[in-house]
Each structure stands twice: as structure tokens, then as C-alpha cells.
From TrEMBL:
Name by which UniProt lists this protein: Uncharacterized protein
One Pfam assignment: BCCT
Keyword match Metal-binding: no
Membrane topology label: Multi-pass membrane protein
Organism of provenance: Polarella glacialis
Any one Gene Ontology molecular-function term assigned to this protein's record: transmembrane transporter activity
Localization terms from the record: Cell membrane
Swiss-Prot/TrEMBL keywords: Cell membrane, Membrane, Transmembrane, Transmembrane helix, Transport
TM regions (residue ranges): 6-24, 36-59
Main location: membrane
Length: 116
């Protein structure tokens, strides 16, 4: 068990009286059935739906992570096959547009005799 688990437990134990007092104050005049339904059951159902949706998506992403990393490795190996990755495919002026730091240090842009 890590330190954050104890901290988390302590946090909830320390705030439990305040949460209980708050719930008691806003529940005044309501029946026990209403309090149970709207303060315990509905959040539970919402939590189940939320974690069921996003937890399932996260599990699917985690399972696909091995496939994606293999795919990235394969694309990196085949980078010379794709024309947009080679520098001779781009027009001459496009290199200056895409490489801003390099173009700013170019002697034509700085107007400094002798270059940088």
C-alpha cells in the first residue's frame, strides 16, 4: 500500500462529518425514500454508466496499445517509402516556410554581413 492510499482514507474520514451535516441540512423535509433514491441510488447508477463507458474505452485502448506501437515502428521503418517524408519531394521554398528557426537564422533574413 502506498502513502496516497492512507492519505485518501484520511481525507474521506476527515470530511465525512461535514458531508453528513450537509446532506442532513439539504434533506430536511424529505422522506427517507427520496433521500435514498436521489443521494445514493442515482449517483451509483450514474457512476456505473460513466465507468462502464469510459472504463471500457480505456481497456480497449490499452489492449490496442501493443498493436499501435508495432504499427508506429513499422511506419518508422518504411518512412523512405512515403514521398512526403523525403526532403527532395518538397518544393524549394517550402523548406523555408516549414523550418521557421532555421529560416530566421538564414543570412538573407538577418541582413547581417557574413551570415550568422
Amino acid at each position: 500500500m502506498d502513502w496516497w492510499t492512507i492519505f485518501y482514507w484520511g481525507w474521506w474520514i476527515s470530511w465525512a462529518p461535514f458531508v453528513g451535516t450537509f446532506m442532513a441540512r439539504i434533506s430536511r423535509g424529505r422522506t427517507i425514500r427520496n433521500v435514498f433514491l436521489y443521494k445514493w441510488s442515482m449517483p451509483f447508477v450514474y457512476t456505473i454508466l460513466w465507468f462502464g463507458t469510459f472504463g471500457g474505452a480505456a481497456i480497449r485502448m490499452h489492449r490496442r496499445a501493443g498493436f499501435v506501437s508495432d504499427m508506429g515502428f513499422q511506419l518508422h521503418q518504411d518512412a523512405d517509402f512515403y514521398p512526403h517524408t523525403s526532403s527532395d519531394f518538397r518544393p524549394a521554398g517550402a523548406r523555408k516556410c516549414y523550418s521557421v528557426p532555421e529560416s530566421l537564422s538564414h543570412p538573407d533574413y538577418l541582413d547581417v554581413p557574413g551570415g550568422c
